[in-house]
Amino acid sequence: MSLQLNNVLPVNSAAPEIEKYEGIFHKDVVEGLNTYPKKLYSKYFYDPIGDRLFQDIMHMPEYYLTDCELEIFRTKTLELADLITTDESDFDLIELGAGDALKSGHLLQHLSAHHTSYSYMPIDISGNILSLLVEKLDRDIPNLDIVPLEGEYFEMLDQAMNISKRRKVVLFLGGNIGNMDMDEAQLFCAEVRRKLSPGDMIIIGFDLKKNPHTVLSAYNDKTGITSAFNINLLNRINRELEADFDTQYFQHYQSYDPISGACRSFLVSLTNQHVHIKGDSIFFKENELIDMEISQKYAPEEIQRMASLAGFQLIANIEDSKGWFVDSVWRV
Ligand code: AVJ
């Protein structure tokens, strides 16, 4: 549920647009479906059913990203730990989109076993996932100081900045940066840089450009899990916004452009149809698309460039054994 602040505005201020809507989710959905091309934000995939479908995706043989990054955190833990503890000062570990911390958990275990003094601040949009994570970490690493933050990256990052009094090490793993196009990612990195200070670091997981069949298969599984993951957002809109999407008339379509590195997911309307969302009626032409998600792939040169342009120094690129994924370590 999103927080509405309308009632604290001065009485004579201009009526904010949001009043037409019941919350930011409602606003984003209706506005996104009234633009051309139609668009929904992939950050809304992650309701409890979406969380579970994403877990299923991570277990698909085609979805290599998790395995690759897990291998990096399992086999190169020492290297990662050394890189973030070189300057010996205490720090706080802030993880954007922590999820189940499957990968970072290895680093946490290592740091705790070596008596490093730090707090772990997991940030996630899913409160459901966060409470499961805290439960798991309390069990696995009993003395770990955990400060969970539920919400959007930047808002929670600001909050983490207010709470943390030590050097900051930010983790942004899993290829989550891929859900931004390259321009958005560049702005994102510059914005994170602006919030950090000299000595602070960030480790970003980038999925690398590779054989285009390998990339496309990871997002176009024959079992239909990725399709269900996309369709679930329509069901979520039905559930939460009293909408009437008939999901049998929407079909998942995946594309990958190996030059730009953009892997994109769409839903195709299979017929002319109207969908109602509370007071709004939205028309879909047959074969009209909803732009659902981008999963951007990178070349090492593009990562180097992004770090420099954002004002970071690239310290190390830590790859898996196949060279498919990289955790890139940057320092202010
Ligand atoms: C969670 C953003 C890393 O883009 O690879 C997986 C989400 N979407 N299959 C990705 C996703 C479809 C995933 N990230």
TrEMBL record:
Keywords: Methyltransferase, Transferase. Residues 25-331 form the Histidine-specific methyltransferase SAM-dependent domain. The keyword Metal-binding does not apply. The keyword Transferase applies. Pfam families: Methyltransf_33 (PF10017). GO terms for molecular function: methyltransferase activity. GO terms for biological process: methylation. This is Dimethylhistidine N-methyltransferase. It comes from Sphingobacterium siyangense. The lineage of its organism: Bacteria, Pseudomonadati, Bacteroidota, Sphingobacteriia, Sphingobacteriales.
